[in-house]
């Protein structure tokens, strides 16, 4: 290495052969340059360098032969394992080839350049006059043009060290002696550089000896400092590019802030230029620090500190001052001093109950346009959910283990920064899983959400059969009265009696205290069956899942299932009465055929109502519950996923149990027809009761006639005897036949509608209602008749 440097120094500076001190100084300076990092700021990319060389070869030899030859040689070079600095070798050769032939050899070693030419006089021959014809043909450099311009104005040439000194001042924003900033500004509000007159230009120029002394001083200063304009240009090249990049970013970010600003800068990180990528990454590392500070506070403590609205999570200003609704002061589940069975008017707290879900869903908003691209929407949603969950645990659930949870979250994250995207994603996943798991534990362990869901299924959806039968049996006589004759304390007392006389008494006391009986708003002429309903009271924080809308759906399902239960109970009691009074019917033999037809129609009604019950409870409610229970057991997702699954569970039951249609304006057509069938069944039962009472009266009358023929009077005529006379029989039979025929026709219409229903389960219900094509055959017989 030393021999090569020595020969290079001798070839460039011949006087170093006689001056041993100068030779050692130049060799030491060369070794310093070789050991420095000059020119190594960019990444070594042989492919990019090869493209530059090919482009240069195509400019010199358009035929392309040199390019093909270079490609062949490059492949052979890359296969050589001996050479270790292949990129440096190619860079050296490319720089040599790119250097103009007239340029001095100091292009690569600025400190070894020969001394600059002495300052010429106004009448001296300039280098521009001694240019070769080839030089004139190829054009002039900017230095030559400047020299020629100043000679044309009669101004002497400014030595390089003076311009270098001015350049150092200009880089600091200070005007130099010869080059200064203009007083005026251009259209872009930037100051231009202008050359000023040399204050000594009007004086006589120094003699030739003075110029030689000045040139000698210039060479001595250059050798001592080693700084030239070219070297300075090389040193500030990186900073010039950095300033240019910063200018582009500033111009593009005039109306952007926060996450949008980070997104704009991140767009330059995908550039193929290694320098631009590195600069953008360094800039993002600094610009994203406020973002990551806000992210850390939101991700690990659930607190949003964003005074300048730069984060992708925003708070609703109308809800910012509100907190989640506090639980009852009497403890979780204790709703009132009377245990939930008190009489009197109940205060409407629907607005309070709406607070939990409203704050959860609307207090914080996800702003996709402010989300940095390096985070991604999937992880952004996880961050949003994690912060909301922690905020909910802190302010709504009052979790006593919050401190331990927060410590675990902080330990998983470490320091969040742009340069560690993999660590950021890992921290987000871990924080999301821990927060979601903790929130599930709070809901299902501390607040017993699963017990409340089961209670709603057992009581409002009549899952407890013995409780429903007991309640129906004890409330039946009261509900047959007008609605204005019912009192709430009687209803709650009957409810409590039904609970104690069924297996429901084994449920937790907290669940039983929440169950209540009340009446809906009623109008004139309605009876208790029309206005009675059960109610299940919930408070914070479980009202976030069991929100008022969900409770209204439970109420709608209860009202429908209660009607089904009433019709089934009515048919069961009517069938037992008919079967038990068979001996009574034999005493009116002319009505045997009518009773046979009644039994056929009643069997058809029992089949219909049993299929409806089995469909609602087994195929809809149980299957929907299994899906919800499976999700709860997995404990995957966050509170939003739990709310969404519970809504899907309720929506599926409402849609299938009520036989709703997706057609707009015709959603409840089938439901209304089914309820009309319920009314027909109740009317039919009332007509058969009248016929039964007539048979009893007629049988007693005939027995009294037989006794009177024997001279024994055993019966006194009552008001009921006068009501059920032979004249009333045709009307009773007409009603029985009318309701029976109307029932068959309406069920036939329902079966046809179910056959074309878009829901598969509803179509299967239609098949079960007419499993042997009973109604299809009957319709064909009616058409033939």
UniProtKB/TrEMBL annotation:
Primary subcellular site in the record, as a coarse category: cytoplasm
One of the GO biological process terms: microtubule nucleation
Key words of the record: Cytoplasm, Cytoskeleton, Microtubule
Basic and acidic residues composition-biased segments: 205-223
GO molecular function: gamma-tubulin binding; microtubule minus-end binding
Positions of the Gamma tubulin complex component C-terminal domain: 449-775
Top-level taxon in the UniProt lineage: Eukaryota
One Pfam assignment: GCP_N_terminal
Region (Disordered): 107-142, 198-223
Record's subcellular location: Cytoplasm, Cytoskeleton
Record carries keyword Cytoplasm: yes
UniProt similarity note: Belongs to the TUBGCP family.
Protein known as: Spindle pole body component
Species assigned in the record: Trametes cubensis
């Amino acid at each position: 290495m030393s021999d090569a440097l020595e020969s290079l120094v001798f070839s460039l500076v011949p006087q170093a052969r006689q001056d041993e001190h100068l030779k050692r100084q130049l060799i030491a300076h060369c070794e310093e340059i070789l050991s420095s990092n000059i020119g190594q700021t960019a990444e070594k990319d042989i492919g990019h360098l090869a493209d530059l060389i090919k482009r240069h070869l195509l400019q010199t030899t358009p035929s392309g032969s040199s390019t093909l030859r270079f490609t062949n040689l490059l492949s052979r070079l890359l296969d050589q394992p001996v050479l270790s600095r292949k990129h440096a070798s190619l860079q050296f050769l490319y720089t040599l080839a790119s250097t103009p032939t007239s340029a001095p050899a100091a292009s690569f070693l600025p400190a070894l350049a020969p001394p600059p030419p002495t300052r010429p006089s106004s009448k001296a021959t300039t280098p521009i006059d001694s240019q070769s014809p080839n030089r004139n043909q190829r054009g002039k450099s900017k230095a030559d043009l400047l020299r020629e311009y100043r000679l044309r104005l009669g101004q002497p040439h400014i030595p390089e060290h003076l311009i270098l000194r001015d350049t150092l001042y200009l880089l600091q924003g200070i005007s130099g002696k010869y080059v200064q900033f203009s007083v005026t500004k251009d259209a872009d509000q930037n100051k231009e550089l202008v050359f000023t007159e040399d204050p000594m230009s009007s004086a006589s120029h120094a003699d030739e000896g003075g110029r030689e002394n000045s040139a000698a001083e210039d060479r001595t200063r250059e050798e001592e400092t080693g700084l030239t304009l070219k070297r300075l240009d090389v040193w500030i090249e990186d900073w010039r590019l950095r300033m240019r990049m910063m200018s582009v970013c500033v111009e593009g970010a005039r109306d952007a802030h926060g996450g949008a600003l980070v997104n704009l800068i991140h767009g330059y990180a995908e550039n193929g230029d290694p320098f631009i990528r590195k600069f953008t990454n360094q800039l993002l590392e600094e610009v994203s620090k406020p973002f990551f500070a806000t992210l850390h506070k939101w991700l690990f403590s659930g607190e949003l500190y964003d005074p300048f609205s730069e984060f992708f999570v925003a708070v609703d200003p109308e809800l910012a001052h509100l907190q989640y609704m506090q639980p009852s002061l009497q403890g979780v589940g204790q709703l009132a001093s009377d245990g939930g069975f008190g009489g009197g008017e109940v205060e409407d707290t629907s607005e309070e109950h709406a607070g939990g879900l409203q704050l959860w869903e609307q207090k914080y908003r996800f702003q996709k346009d402010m989300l940095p691209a390096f985070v991604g929407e999937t992880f952004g949603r996880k961050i949003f959910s994690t912060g909301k969950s922690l905020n909910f645990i802190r302010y709504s659930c009052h979790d006593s283990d919050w401190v331990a949870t927060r410590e675990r979250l902080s330990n998983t994250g470490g320091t969040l920064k742009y340069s560690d995207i993999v660590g950021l994603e890992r921290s987000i996943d871990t924080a999301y899983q821990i927060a979601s798991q903790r929130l599930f534990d709070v809901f299902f362990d501390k607040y017993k959400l699963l017990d409340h869901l089961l209670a709603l299924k057992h009581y409002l959806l009549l899952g407890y059969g013995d409780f429903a039968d007991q309640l129906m049996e004890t409330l039946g006589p009261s509900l047959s009265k007008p609605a204005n004759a019912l009192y709430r304390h009687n209803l709650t007392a009957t409810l409590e009696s039904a609970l104690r006389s069924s297996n429901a008494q084994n449920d937790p006391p907290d669940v039983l205290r929440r169950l209540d009986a009340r009446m809906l708003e009623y109008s004139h002429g309605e009876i208790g069956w029309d206005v009675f309903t059960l109610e299940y009271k919930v408070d914070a924080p479980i009202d976030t899942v069991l929100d008022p809308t969900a409770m209204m759906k439970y109420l709608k399902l209860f009202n429908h299932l209660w009607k089904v239960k009433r019709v089934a109970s009515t048919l069961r009691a009517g069938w037992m009465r008919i079967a038990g009074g068979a001996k009574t019917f034999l005493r009116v033999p002319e009505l045997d055929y009518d009773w046979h037809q009644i039994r056929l129609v009643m069997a058809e009604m029992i089949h219909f109502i049993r299929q409806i019950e089995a469909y609602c409870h087994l195929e809809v409610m149980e299957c929907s519950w299994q899906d919800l229970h499976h999700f709860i057991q997995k404990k995957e997702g966050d509170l939003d996923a739990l709310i969404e699954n519970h809504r899907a569970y309720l929506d599926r039951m409402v849609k299938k149990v009520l036989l709703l249609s997706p057609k707009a304006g015709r959603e409840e057509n089938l439901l209304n027809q089914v309820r009309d069938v319920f009314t027909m069944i109740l009317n039919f039962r009332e007509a058969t009761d009248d016929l039964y009472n007539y048979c009893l009266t007629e049988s007693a009358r005939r027995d009294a006639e037989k006794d009177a023929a024997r001279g024994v009077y055993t019966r006194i005529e009552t008001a009921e005897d006068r009501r059920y006379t032979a004249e009333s029989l045709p009307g009773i039979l007409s009603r029985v036949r009318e309701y029976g025929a109307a029932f068959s026709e309406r069920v036939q219409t329902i079966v046809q509608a179910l056959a074309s229903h878009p829901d598969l389960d509803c179509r299967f219900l239609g098949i079960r209602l007419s499993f042997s094509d009973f109604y299809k055959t009957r319709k064909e017989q009616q058409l033939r008749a």
